[in-house]
Specification:
348 residues; 3 domains; Rossmann fold; transcription; binds hypoxanthine; 42% helix; six-stranded mixed β-sheet; 12 helices; alpha/beta; 434 Repressor (Amino-terminal Domain); DNA-binding transcription factor activity
């Protein structure tokens, strides 16, 4: 394999000049730049990233630890993170914690051992010891989607409260009064916030939320199926099931179909997180859409700012209601949707 010395010899310049060309340093003549590029091409030279990182103490690599890579929401988020990082000259190594704190710490340890420049984390279940230690020790870190209260790390997330309010308004306008929710784990911010937002919105419409109408899920399809079966076994089943993530909504869909019930005539269904195939189900599913790609981009920018010595920003973006037919036909042509509020940014 060609070395940097071979390139310098072939181009008739010094090794330092080759290095400047490779790093896009401006103080190189156009002629030398052309000759170096031609030599790199002709010799198939590939810079040694390991040698570079030993010299510069940076690896141009970010870690992304997500809670469940099989959840389409997180897959979409990871895609956006990788794209944006690549555009900024960074690679991404992804670790899937599978909602397990021990696996989360395994990935954090491995990534820190590899000397990543910074870490994006969507924390599992309230955090894990090593991840929290790393955050407190000042490792460049940004929380994305979920976060941990009391830990001084910038957070990039969506605020779904207005959209949940719009959903309840939509359901109320359709005449639904008995609404149930399948909640995510209370130890995650996304789990606790969504059920809280639902409770508050129902309160505003004077609707009770009895314990029997709160199903405890774990963001996986099976828990959505089980919670929905319990709802359907009640003496007075709910008229609507709102699943706090897309996988639990799929589980709910299974349970409803297994009983031969029709959506929305027998029971309505809505979901948090809009995924591409919600338009292909029959009927298409009403959902709360997060600006997932924007969240990924904003998270990378916050982390790269931190890595490169600029003050990182926490970012909160609004989610919005997407009305389809799974809760009934809207009584008016235009159903309510969340008003996108301007970006709320705060220095952290
Ligand atoms: N869990 C599952 N689905 C999600 C989450 C989450 O924390 N956030 C957005 N979609």
């Amino acid at each position: 394999m060609a070395s940097i010395k071979d390139v310098a010899a072939a181009a008739g310049v010094s090794v330092a000049t080759v290095s400047r060309v490779l790093n896009d340093h401006p103080s190189v003549s156009a002629d030398a730049r052309t000759r170096v590029r031609a030599a790199v091409e002709a010799l198939g030279y590939r810079p040694n990233a390991v040698a570079r990182s030993l010299r510069t103490h940076e690896t141009r690599t970010l870690g992304l630890v997500i809670s469940d890579v099989l959840n389409p929401y997180f897959a979409h988020l990871a895609r956006s993170v990788e794209e944006e990082a690549r555009a900024l000259g960074y690679s991404v190594i992804i670790g899937n914690a599978d909602e397990r704190p021990d696996l989360q710490d395994h990935h954090v340890r491995t990534l820190l051992d590899r000397r990543i420049d910074g870490l994006l984390v969507s924390p599992t279940d309230g955090g894990s010891p090593l991840m929290l230690d790393a955050a407190r020790a000042g490792t460049p870190m940004v929380f994305v989607d979920r976060w941990i209260a009391g830990v001084d790390v910038p957070v990039v997330r969506a605020d779904g409260r207005a959209a949940v309010h719009d959903l309840v308004a939509h359901l109320y306008a359709l005449g639904h009064r008995r609404l149930a929710i399948i909640a995510g784990p209370a130890a995650t911010t996304t789990g606790s916030e969504r059920v809280e937002a639902f409770r508050v919105a129902m309160g505003e419409y004077g609707l009770p939320l009895p314990d029997a109408y709160i199903g405890q899920g774990d963001f996986q399809a099976e828990s959505g199926r089980r919670a929905t079966e319990r709802f359907l076994d009640l003496a007075e089943p709910p008229e609507v099931v709102f699943a706090a993530d897309n996988l639990m909504a799929l589980g709910a869909l299974d349970a409803i179909r297994a009983r031969g019930l029709r959506i929305p005539d027998d029971i309505a269904l809505a979901a948090f997180d809009d995924i591409p195939w919600f338009v292909h189900t029959d009927p298409p599913i009403t959902a709360i859409a997060q600006p997932t790609a924007e969240l990924g981009r904003a998270a990378v920018h916050a982390l790269v700012d931190r890595v490169e010595g600029r003050p990182p920003e926490s970012v909160t973006l609004p989610a919005r209601l997407v009305v389809r037919r799974s809760c009934g036909e809207p009584p008016v042509a235009q159903a309510p949707t969340a008003q996108p509020s301007p970006l709320q940014r705060s220095k952290s």
